[in-house]
Amino acid sequence: MRIAQDSMQTIDLSLDDFFAAGGNRCCFTVPEKTNLCVKVNRVDRSPAFKKAKAPIYKRLRSLDAFDENQEEYRVLGALETFAPEAAGRLIPKCHGWVNTPFGSGLLLTLFRNADGNVSDTVEMEMVRNGVTAELKRAVALFKEEWREVAVPSRQLLLHNIVINKDKNHWRLAVIDGLGSGEALPLGKLLPSMRRRQIERRLDQFDKRLEDFNNLCAKGLAVDKGWVRQRTEPLDNAFKLKALGLDPDVAVGKW
Ligand SMILES: Nc1ncnc2c1ncn2[C@@H]1O[C@H](COP(=O)(O)OP(=O)(O)OP(=O)(O)O)[C@@H](O)[C@H]1O
Ligand SMILES: [Mg+2]
């Protein structure tokens, strides 16, 4: 669903608020709202760009089908009624659309640790510290809770799960890749299908943890460029490219 631009709240963001990026979106902290973030689509991976690169049969889909923010808005809205106890705890709560200097963005829960730092992903944690006893405990707790709330998801990827480091214990939250990977819409999944899907996703998650732990133990994890990019601080050149801004014009302005 498209939202009328002028009815939206405006949030003034700068390049310094840009704290992380994925393959599709740029993530910003929100001035004076420590528990919120804004995600805007990457201009260098825009829905139009992705549609143009897609196989012909997929190009028949609407532009929104290639828009991660539109998809997340739809899925998180459905999950608020489907698994309300998960929102803001195991998955982000969606606070709707906002205008930003970098295009329209989605306002979402930002997970932070007790010390105020933005929570790292499981991937970042493993590259730095491997699988510690605390991480193992957090994974076991997450699996119990995930089964209980039974949130449908696509693959549970290590860079889409963050670790909320509380004083006494760590808790995991899934920040991306939610919703049914199946052809059926969320509400149409039978409880038995939902349970089977959860178990399959959790088994695949375990396997992914084990494989990535082996790579980390061999010191090979960051050899893959995309892992390096996700686990190291972003430089300004990357941020400007992702936002589609000309460095010569943009530096100083933002
Ligand atoms: N709610 C959040 N709390 C803490 N960190 C977050 C949050 N959302 C995103 N991040 C950080 O920003 C990164 C990119 O976010 P996100 O996964 O939403 O982008 P994306 O482009 O949709 O990713 P993908 O490449 O998986 O499609 C995450 O890997 C994580 O490091
Ligand atoms: Mg992601």
Note the topology.
Layout: E1 9-10, E2 18-21, E3 25-30, E4 33-41, H1 47-53, H2 68-82, E5 94-100, E6 103-109, H3 122-129, H4 133-149, E7 161-165, E8 170-174, H5 191-217, H6 225-231, H7 236-242, H8 247-250
Parallel strand pairs: 1-5
Antiparallel strand pairs: 2-3, 3-4, 4-6, 5-6, 7-8
The chain binds adenosine-5'-triphosphate and magnesium ion.
Largest sheet: 6 strands, mixed
**Ligand types:** adenosine-5'-triphosphate, magnesium ion
How many distinct beta strands? 8
What structural category characterises the helix and strand content? alpha+beta
Query: How far is the first residue's CA from the last residue's CA?
Result: 30 Å
Strand percent estimate: 15-25%
Return residue spans where pLDDT drops below 50 for at least 5 consecutive residues: none
**What is the overall pLDDT average?**
90
The level of helicity is: 25-40%
Radius of gyration over alpha carbons?
18 Å
Biggest sheet strand order reads 1-5-6-4-3-2
Q: What string gives the helices and strands in order?
A: EEEEHHEEHHEEHHHH
Task: Provide a count of the helices.
Answer: 8
